[in-house]
Amino acid sequence: MLKTREGTARLLAYKERFIALAKKTGTGLVLHGCTWRASPDWGAKLGYSLDELAQVNRRSVELMVALRWEHETKRTPIVLSAVVGPRGDGYQVGNAMTAKEAQDYHRFQIGIFADTQADLVSAFTLTYAEEAIGIVRAAKAVQLPCVISFTVETDGKLPSGQSLKDAIEQCYRETAGGPLYYMINCAHPTHFEAELRKSGGWRARLRGLAANSSKRSHAELDSSPDLDIGNPAELGEDYRRLRTFLPQLTILAGCCGTDHRHVEQICAACLPAEAAA
């Protein structure tokens, strides 16, 4: 989409819709780049050279910089998040890497972001702990703050079978505290709420959600012929309920099947409680 004016205009319009919502509701905003699949293996599948891929990653951040210059206010501060994704499939582990292999692979993309105005790097839809650890180490090597977001199956566990608690604790332990915070993405709240209700200090490190609007499993989504948008109002209530026992959840977003309608409902459900507090 960055290759054409029309594609770039579509990306900007998409971001500006959420910027307008943040201004309307008086919240801050995290702008994420469009580089989830802009790493070497995936770029090669689309015929990109490493130089072309580097240009795409830089261009994505430049677009966000321009949006921040135009729209940021004291009432609506904007954080620029450069995005990386898993080396393999976002729903299953496949050929798992060691932490060192993951660090080496993700160094390319993260090194590019370190030379931009990105405030941090966010890794989304990670399926196992070792890749997360490698990403954190690659980010620390270039002094770039990092956010780790795991995805889970309908049982609340990572596709690797590891519990969310154990994955966060392993990543925290093996990176000396590493990430700024952790997130969950690409799963419906009903898939992981039971896990989040379990006690433990690990829950305090979880600061964000980007849930799916669909209650379908990863396997069902993979084979689905349609886009399941779920129920926006119901999703907003799910977020409100989660924040009653996890008030530190302040990065609230959407993943598969969501759009501005879902995020509007999340704001409507969560902001009154926050104002009262």
What would the keywords be for this entry?
277 residues; alpha/beta; TIM Barrel; 7-stranded parallel β-sheet; 10 helices; 48% helix; 14% strand; globular
Structural summary, described in words:
With 277 residues, the protein is of the alpha/beta class. The protein has one domain (24-276): TIM Barrel (Alpha-Beta Barrel). The protein contains ten helices and seven strands. A seven-stranded parallel β-sheet has the order 1-2-3-4-5-6-7. The chain is globular.
Q: What would you say about this model in short?
A:
With 277 residues, the protein is α/β, with parallel strands linked by helices.
**What is the ordering of alpha helices and beta strands?**
HEHHEHEHEHEHEHHEH
Shape designation: globular
Question: Strand fraction band?
Answer: 5-15%
Number of helices: 10
Oligomer: single chain
